[in-house]
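A student in our group prepared the protein record below, which I am reviewing. What it holds is a sequence and that sequence's fold in token form. My question to you is simply how this chain folds and whether the tokens agree. Do not assume that whoever made the record got everything right. I have pasted the whole thing underneath without changing anything:
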Amino acid sequence: MVHLENVSRRFTTLSAVRNVSLQIEGGTLVALLGPSGCGKTTLLRMIAGLECCDHGRIVIEGNDVTRRPVFDRGIGFVFQNYALFPHLTVRENVAFGLRVRKTPAARVGAIVDEMLDLVGLSAFGDRHPAQLSGGQRQRVALARALALEPKILLLDEPFAALDVHVRKELRTWLRDLHERTHVTTLLVTHDPEEALEVADRIALMNDGRIEQFGAPRDMYERPASLFAMRFLGPVSTLPVHTGQAVHARPHHVRVEPEAFPGSVKANVLRALQRGGSVHLDLRLEDGSHVAAEVALSQARERRIFERAALHVAAIEYCTFSAADAAPAPHLALEIVCA
């Protein structure tokens, strides 16, 4: 559906996007994830036609749209700030693009009804944006974009301005909406949790390039670099007898009350219960800190809350080369850490 071929964009001395190639299958939801300034929004705007390509090609449904204007790409765009018309009602906002296209009035009404039902706002059609919550306004913006039956839906950090509880609700809602519409969707976000929860595929960007592209679970469990591992979730680093560090997810750190082969002693600095798990902040004898996560039932059984010291080792980890390139995954029950 969408093929990016060595696309680049430069602003004076800054290379915002550097020779990015990406193949996005039709009907999938892809998250463009990365830190501020990595080029994800610039890449999205290039696909939309709001930024030009200095090099490379953008192909949508087999058609080269690299030099085509915005209105000739079949794109629906939803911004972080909603971009709704405050003087228009919800129905009028959703209908706006259809009327610009001179869609027959009877057809406009039917489409608007369908879109408002799709986003769960049928009862709010006569309200103005100021009378809606932030989450409701973002749903109106999505309905307006979908009303034009876009080939691709582009979402530029649509939930970033909302509070954490509303963001979580809208993630689930967006995933459900995508399952119903199957519109090819690109979501720009700096939130790893959002990308892991919502997307079919994640394109992790770093310094204008694609660091890794793949399914959320694969990327979380098998990161291609230390940057990818750290950006996608918490990382614990433990030393090994060769002098090389191992990097593990906190839930892959084995925690025991007593010493076991391959373990090292760690002092418990903090034990914090979060739902059904306990998050531990541990300090090794060399002064370094290690994060671990254990099930609440295990913590109670082993009386972890009452202990000043535990013994830890990584049971699943990745090592990376000095160039931070491909990982070498290891699986072991006991790893010598000192």
